[in-house]
Amino acid sequence: FMKNKKKAIVDLTMVEEIFKGQSSTQFERVTKKKPAFKELDSHSCSIKYVKGDKLMSMDLAFKDNPEAFEPMMGALYRHIEQLKIQMKLDVEGHYIKRQWKKADLDGNGTLSRAEIMKLAGALNMGVKREVASITFDKVDADNNGTLDFEEFQNFLNYMMYRPEIAILFQKIAATGDVLDLKDWLPYTATTKTHDCEMIVKSDWKMAIENFVTFQRDIQMDESMEFQDCAEMLSKFQTNMIKKGAVVGDITYGTFVQYMSSSVNEAFDPSKSDFIWQDMTRPLSEYWIASSHNTYLEGNQLTSKSSVKRYRSDLCNGCRCVELDCWDGSNN
């Protein structure tokens, strides 16, 4: 249904959901005008994706080649699942790319100072406007008043800098065979003055043997061996050679990726697939994820309403949704 070829391109990393059938608003409008189009319901689908701050829909119907529908859907699902796995290994990197795509609405490959300030506010970074503006000038290498993607990455590196991880990296990199837990990370308020510019632009490296010691002594993974670490870290650091070869040192960027990835989660992943908590207690004793204006596909003033949002929010963990009831044509 898209006449504009640019709009017919969907970034699969921004896909939220895929629905089979003709249940989208656009499909409903078309089938009202052309009832015969409903015959293609079993060979139709809607791809919901984020563009800017809006939830968009690409609606597809296989009219001339319906036998290609199922293979296409299977290939699409597999590819998106593979992307999700890759994104989990680099949560921070994917997050930066996603924010860039949301902010670069005109697709010109740069962000202005105003767009950066708006994005900083939307991300709840908690920094003063003047601090963000100074950082903008610092990373604007060509002084053209806009940031390209590399400069934008540097901007977020400054904004998201975590001194405790930088200090931890330094300590592990400088450690011998043993890490002493009692002075493993003497983090105080004064350490926040640590110079992040040295971290962002440095080429610090950590020997993998030191990382193994960290895994054993601090992470308490006593079974961790050198090759286990090599295989795990090779997923984060593309220039590391996989099993059976010499492994290079670990960069600060790779260490940050590991610390913020699903591999390092404190949550037991085996408990995410089934209900293991006590579900017999009164409702007031539970924390409940809730959804406001559940039916809206975008902003509160101009976006459309859709029942599909209820399915999406419930599948994403919400257990309290909002339902507004108005008198309609049938009262």
TrEMBL record:
It comes from the Eukaryota. It catalyses: a 1,2-diacyl-sn-glycero-3-phospho-(1D-myo-inositol-4,5-bisphosphate) + H2O = 1D-myo-inositol 1,4,5-trisphosphate + a 1,2-diacyl-sn-glycerol + H(+). Gene3D superfamilies: EF-hand, Phosphatidylinositol (PI) phosphodiesterase. One of its GO terms (biological process) is lipid catabolic process. Its EC number is 3.1.4.11. Keywords: Calcium, Hydrolase, Lipid degradation, Lipid metabolism. One of its GO terms (molecular function) is phosphatidylinositol-4,5-bisphosphate phospholipase C activity. It is an enzyme of class 3 (hydrolase). Residues 91-126, 127-162 form the EF-hand domain. The keyword Calcium applies. This is Phosphoinositide phospholipase C.
